[in-house]
Amino acid sequence: MKKNILLFVLLTTLNVFSQDNIPNVDLKTMEGKTISFHEVTDQNNVVIISLWATWCVPCIKELDAISDVYEEWQEETGVELIAVSVDDSRTVKRVKSLINGKGWDYQILLDTNNDLKRALGASTVPLTIVVKDNKIVLRHSGYSPGSEDELYEKIKELTL
Q1: Torsion sign (Cα): 49, 124, 121, 3
Q2: CA 86, CA 77: separation in Å to the nearest integer?
Q3: DSSP code for 21
Q4: Amino acid 10: pLDDT
Q5: Which of 30, 54, 68, 124 shows the greatest Cβ crowding within 10 Å of its Cβ?
Q6: How far is CA 129 from CA 3, 36, 73, 78, 97, in A?
Q7: Domain assignments of the chain as residue spans, ordered by start
Q8: Backbone dihedral region of 146: left (phi > 0), alpha (psi from -120 to 50 degrees) or beta?
Q9: Rounded distance between C-alpha atoms, residue 128 and residue 130, angstroms
């Protein structure tokens, strides 16, 4: 029993440390083009990755809250937000109409097979990660009003 617990702790620890690097997963654009996740995160600036779904109310609230201040964030820090929908093949049809209705000015990618979600070890959405130099520097699950302000403080630390 003790060996099993030790093995579990060791594997869990290794899994946490392996999450520092961005996984090399292929995603789809809204136009159906396949794109490597490394391509969109391998930039000199800070990138926010938001895993979300159309059926996830906290996800939509978070992306709405960031949308209100996103232009200012970009002007001040150059940050880019990439919203990755984890909607499956049954609900992915709702993504385009939702983003059009919301007017979000984010790059939207689709993870219908949940490859990225699994590779990041995400058990739930929303999951927000901040990437710099292709390394995860911040990881936050869930959303509560005002957490976008904490996110912005971290972005300023990394960019200014």
Answers
A1: positive
A2: 27
A3: B
A4: 39
A5: 54
A6: 33, 17, 16, 16, 25
A7: 22-159
A8: left
A9: 7
Whole-model pTM?
A: 0.85
pLDDT in the model for residue 1: 54
Nearest to 35 by CA among 49, 25, 50, 48: 25
**pLDDT by residue (tens digit) across 81-102?**
999 999 999 999 999 999 999 9
Asked if 109 and 35 count as a contact pair (C-beta separation under 8 A), the reply is: yes
Please state which CATH class domain 22-159 belongs to.
Answer: alpha beta
Q: Token digits for 107?
A: 């790059």
User: How many other CB atoms are there within 10 angstroms of residue 21's CB atom?
Assistant: 13
Polymer length of the chain: 160
Interval 48-60: pLDDT, tens = 999 999 999 999 9
User: Tens digit of pLDDT for each residue in 20-48?
Assistant: 788 889 999 999 999 999 888 876 789 99
Which residues 6+ apart lie within 8 Å of 78 measured at CB?
45, 46, 159
